[in-house]
Amino acid sequence: MEREVPVPHVLIFPFPLQGHMNSMLKLAELLCPAYFYITFLNSDHNHKRLLRFTDAEARFRRWPKFRFETITDGLQADDPRSIELIFEMFEASESIIRALFRDLVISLSRPQQETPPLSCIIADGIIPFAIDVADEFKIPIISFRTVSACSFWAYFCIPKLIAAGELPFQGDMDVLIKCVPGMEGFLRRRDLPSFCRPEEFNGPVFQSVLRLTQETTRASGFILNSFEDLEGPILSEIRSHLPNLYAIGPLHAQSGFASNSLWEVDRSCMTWLDSRPSNSVVYVSFGSLAVVKRETLLEFWYGLVRSEKHFLWVVRPDSITGGVVNPEIPVVLLEGTKERGCIVGWAPQEEVLAHPAVGGFLTHSGWNSTLESIYAGVPMICWPCLADQQTNSRFVSEVWRVGVDMKDTCERGTVEKMLKDVMEKRKEELMGSVDKLAKLARSSIGEGGSSRSNLDRLIQDIRSKTPSCP
């Protein structure tokens, strides 16, 4: 009698933030065609929003071996989902969330009629208890960090920076950092992850990220949403500590324009873009987490209007301190927006960046946004807000040379100047650089490309972790 071929059952567990959930759900879509059983563990809050604003439920229904499960994120339904608050709640509620996660792992590890026992966990690398639970039940676990390789490497080197006296620091933010191998010639204090700044150093988020980054070495594998031709030298540095590394990005480019948005998308902006000339529009979005003061928003607004460029601007309902913009908006801004602008609450970003009218992206430098912009061939104006974004923006401007970095500055004259630099003065130079990277990104996910090969290796390795049927 022939032995039945075992089918892997993978549990995927993202940290409960939009960018983390999005990239890990994209990974799930890539694993489904391998005919794995996949359980995707979402937070209750995010799952309700995902089902409300996207077709994710219908989209995954075509994969009968896929299913969603949910778990609390430790917050009340109406609490803001800022990264600081969620980290604090995860730490404060760890015993509760850990117990629920552990119970689910136990349940999934039992033979069931619907699914085989759990054979592998792919968990977000900043979930504090995932590796411990996996180790307890001797289930292989692969860590997925949804940040760039360059920012992860900066996180990983923090103990070395502390030992060398480069952290903590005070004073000149432009002093070069010497103890992050591969970045010695261009990484400054201001380019380190935001948690390293004096006001956040030794805070709860810093301590959590530091501890969890070091614990990544306990996982049996490590996934990054990147590709060799973009971050090859830094990937090599990481492999000296985490040899079983899978660089499989850009993930968004391998699953079409499927939306995993937790916000209601306003598609009217696509019709507006259709009426604009090629490469004439600056797309502006600071992602799903950034919150700005009214004064900051007005400085950006003045800069956009004074640049005399067409602009499509995403302003989330919760992105302004206090919740609303003062109704007394200067006439010059209202008139300038009426002539050349379009403001929406949320946009289909991948489609926007792929639109021929878009010629620049004023971005917070989140990693998903950075990859999407590179793949679409759109130069960036970077205004990083938190976490990994400071390091990403430095690589955009100084290493890949596909944009300019406005870090730590928000003044209308600077905004205007940098918009004109990207859309006029340096347009040809930046477009040439980003076009080259876009081609390399497409090659990486094509047949024989590095990311495709790494994805195939990941699938085979997961199969090899699946116990044979008795």
Mean pLDDT across residues? 91
Low-confidence stretches: none
Biggest sheet character: 7 strands, parallel
Tally of contiguous helical segments: 19
How would you describe this structure to a colleague?
The chain has 470 residues and is an alpha/beta fold. Helix content is 44%, strand content 13%. A 7-stranded parallel beta sheet has the order 3-2-1-4-5-6-7, sandwiched between helices. The protein has a 6-stranded parallel beta sheet with strand order 10-9-8-11-12-13, with helices on both faces. The longest helix is centred in the last third of the chain and has 19 residues, at 427-445. The radius of gyration is 22 Å and the shape is globular. The model has no long low-confidence stretch (mean pLDDT 91). It comes from Protea cynaroides.
Offer a concise description of the structure.
The protein has 470 residues and is α/β, with parallel strands linked by helices.
Describe this protein with a few key phrases:
470 residues, alpha/beta, globular, UDP_glycos_trans_CS, six-stranded parallel β-sheet, 13 strands, transferase, single chain, Glycosyltransferase, seven-stranded parallel β-sheet
